[in-house]
Design a protein that fits this description.
Number of strands: 3
Shape: globular
CATH architecture: Orthogonal Bundle
Helix content: 55-70%
Largest sheet: 3 strands, antiparallel
Order of helices and strands: HHEHHEEHHH
CATH class: Mainly Alpha
CATH topology: Arc Repressor Mutant, subunit A
Strand content: 5-15%
Strand order of the largest sheet: 1-3-2
Number of helices: 7
Oligomer: single chain
Radius of gyration: 16 Å
Length: 127
């Protein structure tokens, strides 16, 4: 058993364009319905949001609560275990914001605009 395998496991859970955004929204807003998450992340498709939530639920990062009512009501929240990821996500967001500034210093405003279009900018905007 090597250290990089454990690092890879953590990356696997966070890998993808949407998981970190979903987690940051849930950490910021608390419990959210599916439609609220979709509105909060307008570029994500329903299919992708459902898939990413299912994966996060499998890893016990996100809790899915289904209410037996008509129409059906489903809410998502961060589990107690998932709360442990908050400092990791915050550190990544801080690094991303610093990286945008670093790119600006190295290459100027045009490169900064490209860096701002990245996922780090989207993550930073969720603070």
């Amino acid at each position: 058993m090597t250290v990089y395998c454990k690092f890879g496991t953590a990356l696997e859970i966070l890998t993808g364009k949407w998981k970190s955004l979903i987690l940051l929204r849930l950490l910021s807003n608390g419990t959210m319905r599916f439609s609220e998450l979709q509105k909060a992340i307008p570029d994500i498709s329903k299919k992708m949001l459902a898939q990413q939530l299912k994966e996060l639920e499998y890893h016990d990062i996100v809790h899915r609560e289904v209410y037996a009512q008509i129409p059906p009501k489903v809410e998502y929240s961060i589990t107690e275990y998932g709360q442990l990821m908050k400092p990791v996500l915050q550190t990544m967001s801080d690094w991303g914001a610093g990286h945008v500034q670093h790119i600006h210093k190295l290459y100027g405003e045009e490169a900064e605009a490209e860096a701002n279009a990245s996922d780090f900018r989207k993550i930073d905007s969720l603070r």
